[in-house]
Amino acid sequence: MTETKLRIGFIPLVDAAALLVAVDGGFTKAQGLDVELVREVSWSNVRDKLNLGLFDAAHLLAPVAVASSLGIGHVRVPIITPFNLGINGNSITVSPRLYADLSAAADGDIADPLVSARALARLISERKNRNAEPLTFGMTFPFSHHNYQLRYWMAAAGIDPDEDIRLVVLPPPYMVDSLASGHVDGFCVGAPWNSVAVDLGVGRILHFGCEIQSRVTEKVFAVRERWATEHPDTLNALIRALAAAADYIEDKQNLDAVSTIVGKRLGVESEVIMRTLTGVLKVATDGTTRSSDRYILIGRNNAMRPDPVQAAWIYAQIVRWGQAPLSEELLNLAQAVFRADLFDAVIGAAPSPNGSEPNDGIGAFVGPNFVPDDIAGHLASWRPRRSERPRLSIVR
Amino acid sequence: MKRRHSEKSELGETRKGSEPPGQGNVPRPRDSNLKIAIVDESPIRAAILEDGLREAGFTLVERIAETRNLLARVYAMDPDVILIDLESPSRDELEQMFQVSRAVKRPIAMFVDQSDTASIQASVDAGVSAYIVGNLQKDRIKTILDLCISRFNAFARLQGELDQAKDALQERKIIDRAKGVLMKAKKLSEEDAYALLRKTAMNEHKKIAEIAQSVVTAAELFK
User: Fold this and answer.
1) Are B132 and B81 in contact (CB under 8 A)?
2) Which residues of chain A does B68 touch, with a Cβ-Cβ cutoff of 8 Å?
3) Which of A30, A282, B179, B184 is deepest in the core (most CB within 10 A)?
4) Residue ranges of the domains in chain A?
5) Chain A residues with beta carbon closer than 8 angstroms to that of B118
6) Which residues of A touch B (CB under 8 A)?
C-alpha cells in the first residue's frame, strides 16, 4: 500500500503535542500516512494555508475554526474538527511591577481571580485619576481564548476591556520581549511562553487559564469540511493516530520521550515542556511553584472528543465582545464545527462523564452556569456594556 | 464606481497633468499617489520590491523595518496598501486592524475575496500578503499585487541560484581535495586524477562530487 502524503501546519506551542508526537513518534506512519509537518509563524498563515488547500490539516486556535466557518474577520471557509488537540493550557502573566501593585491593592488572596480582577479595577481607576497611560495587555489573536479569558477575568470586576485598558495582538515569540521592554504590562498566552518569562525574571504567572475557566477547548485539529468529505479514510486514520499519540502522552512513563519530541520541534528545553505537561509550574523567579491537575488536558478526562458546548461557548464570547451578532443560524454553524460524530465513529462513544469535570462543561470562576441554548440569557447576566464601543483598542 | 479615495485620486490626476513629461520611461499609473507600506524582514527583498514599485510609478513607498509596535507605525504612516511578507510573525498584529474602528480613520480589509482564489493562491505561494485600507477597488491594486508576486518570486529564484552557486563552490572544493589525495596516493597528474574520478562516477552512476566525497572520507579514515 502506498502511503498517503499529507502536509500539516502547526505553531510551535506545547498544545501541538498530540500532533507532533503522532508524527515524530511514528503513530501516523503506522496508519499508512506520510506526514510533513510545517512550522508556521502566524495564525493568519495557518488559517490561509489551510483555507487554500496548501495544508491538508492544521493545529488551530479553536475560535479561529469557528470564525472561519462563520466568515467573520476573513473570507468564509467551512472548517471542521474531529479531534481536540488541547483543553486549557494558557496562563495570565504580569510584570513583577504590576504584580506588586496588584498585591498591594488586593483585598484578599490574589490567587483568587475575583480578588485580582478587583485589585486591577482599583489600579485602573487610580491611574485614571492621575491621568496615567492605561495598562496594556497582550494576547495572541482576535479570535482566541487568550483574548476571551483576559476579557472574562477583567469584566468580572466591572472593567471594560475596550475602554479601560489596551489589548494588543502580539505573536507569542514576541510576548516575553514586550513584557521585558514595558510595551505590555501583562499577557495571556500558551506554553511555553509564560514559563520563559518567569525564567528570565521578567514575568510572574498570575493565573492559570483553568482558574478562569475550568475547561475550554484551546486548540483543535482542523480540516476543511470539504476535504473531510472527500477523504474519509485518511481522516479516520489521522484520528486514530492522534488518539494513540494523546494516550501515549498521558502515560507518565513516556514523559521524557514526549518532552524531548516536543522540545525539539519547539526549540525549547525539554524540562520547560515537562513543567507544562505535568501542570507543576514555576510561577515566580524565586522558584515558587503552583500546580493544577488540569493545567493542560490532552488525552485524559475525555479531552480529545469535540464538544458542541465548547463551540457554543466560543460563539457566546464572539457575540459578547461584538465580533458577530447573535443568531440561531450562526450558533448552529458554530456548533457544526465540532464534529463529535466523526470522533465517535472511530474511537467509540464517550465514556461516562468524569466527576471532576464542570457541570456546565465550562466551569467559569464567576457567573451563571453556561446554557448553550440560551446565549442571550447568558450574555444578559453580565452588566450591559456602557455603550457601543469599538471592539479592540490599540496602542498608538 | 464607489471610490473612497476620490478626492485623493482627482488631486493625483491634476498633479499628473502638470508634471514635466519624460519622468521615467513608464507612464505613471493613475494610482501613483497610493501610499504603500512594505513590512518585510528581508531588507534586500524589500529593496527589490520598493524599486519595482517605483519603476512602475508608485512613488509613495515606505518600508517599515522595525516591527515592534507595528500597528502604531502603520497608523502613523497611514498607508492605502500594506504588503507583508508571510514569514513575518507580525502578520497576526495586522489582523487586529479588522477589529479596530476607533484608532484608524477607516477599516482595513484583506483585498483578496472568495472570488479571487487564484490571486490569493499566487500570493501565498510567493510568500506575500496584501491588505488594502478602505474601500479601494480590487482591480486598482491588481498591478501592485502582480508586481509584488513577480518580485517575490524573482527574489526566491535569486536566492535559489545563490544557494546553487554556493553548492557548486563546495563541490569544487571537495573535488580539488579528492584530486590531491589521488595525486599523492597514486602518483597521478592532476588531469589523470580528475579523469579517474570522472570515470568512477560514470561507472557507478554517481556525481563526481559524491565520488570525491567518498575519496576524501576514505583518506581521512586511513590517516
Assistant:
1) yes
2) 174, 178, 181, 183
3) B179
4) 4-88+216-278+293-358, 90-214+376-380
5) none
6) 41-45, 48-49, 52, 54, 73-76, 140-142, 168-171, 173-174, 178, 181, 183, 323, 389-396
